[in-house]
Amino acid sequence: MLPITASDTGIQMGLVAERAVPAYGDTPITLDHDMPLLPGAGRQFTFAALADHIDDIAARLWAAGVRPAQRVAIHKTSGFDINVLSCAAARIGAVPVQLSPGLDGASVLALLDRLEQPYLVTDLAKLDGPLSDPQLANITKAVLVVAGSRPGTVALAGLAGAPRVEAVVQELDEPALITHTSGTTGLPKLLVHTPRTLHGRYRPQAKLFDLVRRQETVALHVSYVHSRMPLALAVLLPRGVPFLVMDDATPDHVAAFFAEHRPAFVESAPNSFMEWEELADDPRKPFANVKYFSSTFDAIHPSTMHRLLHASERHHPVFYQIYGQSETGPLVGRAFTRETALGADGRCQGYAFPGDTKFRLVARGGKEPSREHPGYIEVQAAGRVLTYYGEGERYAGQVQEGGWWRGMDVGYRTEEGCLHLLDREVDVVPTIHSTLEVEDTVLDRLDELTELVVLRGPQDEPLPVVCTRKDLPLDPVRWREAVADFPPMAEPVRLTLDELPRTATMKVQRIELTRRLHERLTQEWSS
Prior knowledge:
By secondary structure, this protein is α/β, with parallel strands linked by helices. The chain has three domains: about 150 residues, Rossmann fold, CATH 3.40.50; about 180 residues, 3-Layer(aba) Sandwich (Rossmann fold); about 90 residues, 2-Layer Sandwich (GMP Synthetase, Chain A, domain 3). The chain is globular.
């Protein structure tokens, strides 16, 4: 097997924008939303302006008392200013902690408590809502608000014009960023990144972006609090690539935004691409200029790739599927074309990145890993995080002999060396070979579905949850025909997309959804 080589350099989040300015200072960044932190910035500004905003906010954080190595938790309403704040904190040597805007208040308070008296940067909406608990003051060093003011907090707006301070270059193996896992199995774990591990994640992503012509625009709709976003900046800014950052993923907005800006490279999560499928026939042709699609965070359905590739009018557009884990970053990837997408096996995630990642399959229950008996997927990756903050023993428990990381996904390797992901171990349904495989197949058969999730029912039966286009009723005859060749399943439960609990990266929280449905079905049976 190819060795994994640790990076000998690091990503300095607070300096990426500044270092890009001499060559690409006039390159534009376009947002589809305003930033409350910087009300005068507008929705379009240059790389040079971004660097200045980061320097400005870093000075304000310093004036508020933040110092190197201190933790700065950022939990505010969704927006790109989350990343401005993170870069600003890193610029003065502090450790930004990116907490999803979608986390419930109890989870945020628990994570803040684990962080041991961090600074908290938030907004009034959060303080009036999920963070209204009076214990907040006891578990934070200080609370800073991005706009407006509130007694007992520090108003960052009031620190505008604070003297600029010298940037801090962080050591390669010191904490530089903290993100968190998706929380699909409970309270999220806090992931500690270093400049070296961030660069390890950067390497495979940089190779992908090298395909983009400098003059063409990249569109990003990814979680602001995932490590993917600061790494996207680390890839795009030094290359002088103009880019769009989208907060609103509703199809009509995306169609109008793309029709105006005509991106050539679009990166988003699988669930967003699924929602955008209906735009393939939109007269505005929002995907006409897209040469590259990139799906991160999770597997994507072949039918989704097929529709979007055929919505492009470019010669030989490509859809990149990249599979990774929060703890490791990107692990394997594969490219699909118009000719190969629809016939692809949706469970095939791709191949390791030479020199950056490798994987192996380990037996479960003493059986050789195969399609019929999937094994644990264990990986080595240059981007693997340093530890779980406050849960070092838990992290160590997933590190196997030889430095292999076990992430609890199960699958198998084909003869060609391709990794096939079948399920997370906690999501396995006894009578189903692969819930994800069933979902791929049925979604391909039923165009009226926008989402399908197969869960374990109260009596271990497969329990399908369906979402339909325009929330129309599901034809029971078509459903029965579509699932006739699978093991018997319970009657489908129909929900709207908005009713599905999701993670920061738009994955369906299967365990939480299962809990809710079990509770609902139990009540129905007892009434």
